[in-house]
Write a structure and sequence with these properties.
Blueprint lengths: L2 H28 L5 H21 L10 H25 L5 H12 L15 H21 L9 H10 L12 H25 L4 H12 L17 H14 L3 H8 L3 H6 L2 H22 L5 H16 L14 H13 L12 H19 L8 E2 L2 E2 L2 H26 L5 H12 L20 H15 L3 H4 L14
Antiparallel strand pairs: 1-2
Helix pairs in contact: 1-2, 1-3, 1-5, 2-3, 3-4, 3-5, 3-6, 4-5, 4-18, 5-8, 7-8, 7-9, 8-9, 9-13, 12-13, 12-14, 13-14, 15-16, 16-17, 16-18, 17-18
């Protein structure tokens, strides 16, 4: 294990964190807020940690980064950032450390839930910090490591795939540095454009920034406890729907469009599967809302399409209290939580590419049962999916469901009934946020006990890092010196 390399990379991460925390400090100074010492102290602590890491860390020129170091940097990097991000919440005096950590993890993992019963608990600078954690968490490790990725080789590729995962995720640019820069430029551009459009329809500046930062991050933090319901605006819903959909699509697709590679766009099937899945879910929900008499036709279409895309993209916004919807509609939304968006996007969940490949693999096994000698090739678009990739996806799916079951059992021990427990863990693992029952779209996680919040924190981190990055460190072989690591 090259600890000096790890310290150097963590030091760079702390430098990026210090730059980010400077923004709410400026807001605190402008507003003459009492939060100035809080953010100044946090920034100094982050700067001190970065100095120590850089002092004892080292990265030689052309030094390779192995998978072992990459896993440690990704895991420790997220834990370090989330812990430091909890300091401003904790120093306000309104939260214990577990609650403060919950708020920080909720932001950086783009889950978008809170334990606060009233946002008056947060000063303006803390609210700004809350939005920034969400936005930075959306682009994740890629944005924070953009200054160091060019100096990595195989380890950099692992970091890229760990943060922007998916069964068929690939790098479409020659260098990871160029990929990261393009992703960041698209990410920033979408955010600015959405803020501008929201301002045009009469949304307040701060609220427009909050909604835009949360939408592009597919997070769901809102200025109001009832999400977007308080806006009572079709225009806000339409703008949000468009950007939720854009942000949950594979970002490499935008590079191909920018390069005018229309053939590659037509041959890439993931977004078509994604649109098809969302359309089918929307039709089922809208029909159920209308045929049961719960809503008229216009409202069934309006709220049906918004909630389908919001949950399907794992953003977690709500334009209506879907916890009161008919059981069938709620069940469809529950299934949407698991699938999630496209690979190489800011969305969470299992990812539509993995689900499609799993379905095709299952169909292949059924054919082999009927025709033992058949040779069946699994394809994803024009590409042949090799058996190793299918095996990796199958193992991921098994681990995902296993973790879901274990965490559901653990959080049920906090006193939640089994249905609420299933909804909570499904929403947290997929970074959706709101679920059903006591954590519905108009509720907060304030009713969850301290023990339950610890389980929630674990679920959010595991879901954001897609299981493997954290669970692999529990393998004894991981800590054994071996050449293949």
């Amino acid at each position: 294990m090259n600890y000096r390399l790890i310290l150097n990379l963590l030091g760079n991460l702390c430098i990026a964190f210090t730059i980010i925390i400077f923004l709410p400090l400026v807001v605190a100074l402008i507003h003459h807020s009492s939060s100035v010492p809080i953010f100044l102290g946090t920034m100094c602590l982050s700067g001190l940690i970065s100095l120590v890491c850089k002092r004892y860390g080292e990265m030689k020129s052309n030094q390779r980064m192995r998978v072992r170091e990459a896993v440690i940097v990704v895991g420790l990097g997220w834990l370090l950032v989330c812990t430091m991000g909890a300091i401003p919440y904790y120093l306000t005096g309104n939260h214990d450390f577990v609650t403060a950590l919950f708020e920080s993890v909720s932001g950086f993992t783009t889950t978008g839930v809170t334990t606060a019963q009233s946002f008056s608990e947060f000063s303006v600078p803390v609210l700004v910090w809350r939005c920034l954690t969400h936005w930075c968490g959306g682009i994740g490790v890629i944005m924070l490591f953009i200054v160091i990725m060019p100096r990595m080789n195989s380890g950099a590729g692992y970091l890229f795939n760990a943060e922007l995962p998916g069964g068929m995720g690939e790098r479409n640019l020659p260098q990871i540095k160029e990929s990261a820069k393009f992703i960041v430029s698209v990410y920033v551009g979408l955010t600015v454009l959405e803020i501008f459009l929201l301002l045009l329809v009469g949304v307040d500046v701060f609220q427009a920034m909050n909604v835009a930062l949360a939408t592009v991050a597919t997070g769901g933090f809102s200025f109001f406890h009832d999400s977007l319901i308080s806006f009572h605006s079709v225009y806000v819903e339409v703008i949000t729907v468009v950007f939720m959909l854009i942000s949950s699509i594979n970002y490499s697709l935008y590079y191909r469009i920018w390069r005018r590679d229309w053939t590659a766009v037509k041959e890439e099937p993931e977004h078509r599967y994604y649109f098809g899945w969302l359309f089918a879910a929307f039709i089922m929900i809208a029909a159920n809302l209308y045929l049961t008499g719960y809503m008229d036709l216009f409202d069934s279409l309006r709220y049906g399409i918004f909630q389908t895309i919001s949950i399907g993209s794992t953003t977690g916004f709500a334009s209506d209290d879907f916890d009161k919807w008919p059981s069938f509609s709620r069940y469809v939304l529950f299934l949407l939580m698991f699938v999630g968006g496209c690979s190489n996007s800011t969305a969470g969940g299992i990812k539509i590419s993995r689900m499609v490949i799993l379905l095709k693999a299952s169909w292949a096994e059924l054919l082999r049962t009927l025709h033992p000698r058949i040779v069946y090739t699994i394809r994803f678009g024009q590409r042949i999916v090799d058996p190793k990739t299918v095996g990796n996806i199958t193992r991921f799916f098994f681990l995902y469901i296993s973790v879901y079951i274990v965490l559901t059992i653990l959080i049920s021990l906090s006193g939640l009934n089994i249905m609420d427990s299933m909804g909570v863990i499904a929403a947290l693992l997929s970074s959706v946020g709101p679920a059903f029952g006591i954590v519905g779209p108009t509720m907060t996680y304030s009713e969850i006990s301290t023990y339950g919040r610890i389980i929630c924190i674990l679920a959010m981190i595991l879901g954001r890092l897609e299981i493997f990055t954290l669970l692999v460190v529990f393998q004894p072989d991981f800590w054994t010196v071996k050449k293949n690591w």
